[in-house]
Automatic annotation (TrEMBL):
CDD domains: NUDIX_Ap6A_hydrolase (cd03673). Transmembrane segments: none annotated. It comes from the Bacteria. One of its GO terms (molecular function) is bis(5'-nucleosyl)-tetraphosphatase (asymmetrical) activity. Belongs to the Nudix hydrolase family. This is NUDIX hydrolase. GO terms for biological process: AMP biosynthetic process; ATP biosynthetic process. Residues 5-129 form the Nudix hydrolase domain.
Length: 132
């Protein structure tokens, strides 16, 4: 990848019974929402569903597309993340890894306090509003 090439990523806000699934990333010691880079020629939608499953064990369907995010990543590359609200179809259980070692179902109020990044908190609010 060229230094100026934008990193493409996708993720989701998984919702169930008025709660949101958040993940703990041990490398960063933070609570966040599941997301990751696209693999090869996969679409953003495919990547969002795959990443949410890999990082949470949840099989979901896409809901409304949420606000995307653009920033410079830790390697100094431009990065764009597309996000979706998601509805859970099945739970295969979390398999802890070096990327994600815990997941929690939290209320929107708890998410406001626990999530490390304001953009994640904004996405939770947006996802909840998209369901009404």
């Amino acid at each position: 990848m060229l230094a100026s090439e934008t990193v493409r990523a996708a993720g989701g806000v998984a919702l169930r019974h008025g709660k949101v699934c958040i993940i703990h990333r041990p490398d960063y010691e933070d609570w966040s929402l599941p997301k990751g880079k696209l693999d090869g020629s996969e679409s953003h939608e495919e990547a969002a569903l795959r990443e949410v499953h890999e990082e949470t064990g949840l099989r979901c369907v896409l809901g409304a597309e949420l606000s995307s995010q653009e920033y410079i990543d830790r390697q100094g590359r431009p990065k764009t993340v597309r996000w979706w609200a998601m509805t859970v179809l099945a739970d295969d259980g979390l398999t802890p890894s070096h990327e994600v070692d815990d997941r929690r179902w939290v209320t929107p109020e708890q998410a406001e306090r626990i999530l490390a990044y304001e953009h994640d908190r904004e996405l939770v609010r947006e996802a909840l509003a998209s369901q009404t």
